[in-house]
Fold this protein.
Amino acid sequence: MTKLNTGLSGCSLELINDRVLRKYSPTTDYNSRLLSQADKQVVFGNRIYKNIDAPKVYDTQENYFDMEYIAGKSFEEFFSSASVNDVEFVVSTLFDYFDTLISTARSFDATKQILTKIDSLKEKSSHKKYIEFLRKYVEDNKIIVPHTFCHGDLTFANIIFHKNRLFFIDFLDCYVDTFLSDLVKLKQDLHHLWAVHNQDVYSVRIHQIYQYIWDKLEIRYESFMNESFHILDVMNTLRIEPYLTSDDQRVILEGIVKSTELYAISCSSDGGAINQISKNETEVDVVTSNDKSYDGNRGD
């Protein structure tokens, strides 16, 4: 049995044999959440998405679940040598995923869920004034989202790349089920380069490819980049804070927080309209530890 890298949640991974990977809960309190993730992975696996799959779940127990081990490439390995056709395959596959979700979307008032999550974040956050502003902002503006299935943590670190197939891993429960949550996570990864910096794998090539993919997504789903998206964008960033383990990660997160659309409003004296932050202001030039992903299912 082989121990493998873990992510911010603290879950540990163990390769039982060449076909089975076991994911353990980090604490007793986390058990129910881990099993919810396994259930979500099963649900996703039973759906039909073009060129996308998830590892099969074989067994669930109180504090772990066993799943199919998928040997594939990490985002670093894949994009370091990806051809133009490979990159276009990823773009078109993501388009198909989001378009499928959008086709069944129904409008949902997520105001209550967002306010509950805001309240849960305040105690552990260093951005208490910003959170107070967000609470009042959400109270004053009903937040309507398209209700759909969502992965919950859709970053490229949670995708196993094959030449003609993507495997989604490390699903998470989400306080608001909407594809916007997945778009927000991709923005974190592709625009802000969160995983690239945190895993110390930055390269100009990967940066350019990521920016190209995000530009494509931003253009295609521009009509959904509205007030609800901006709120979820901020919430996603603030939710990461309690899981940070280094000062480097905190510096990166601080840069992302200050680049969000709503931050300018919270700092302004007149509370005017949302101002677009320039691309230069959103760049975060920080390189962190050598926490590199392994070749196959990776931690969250």
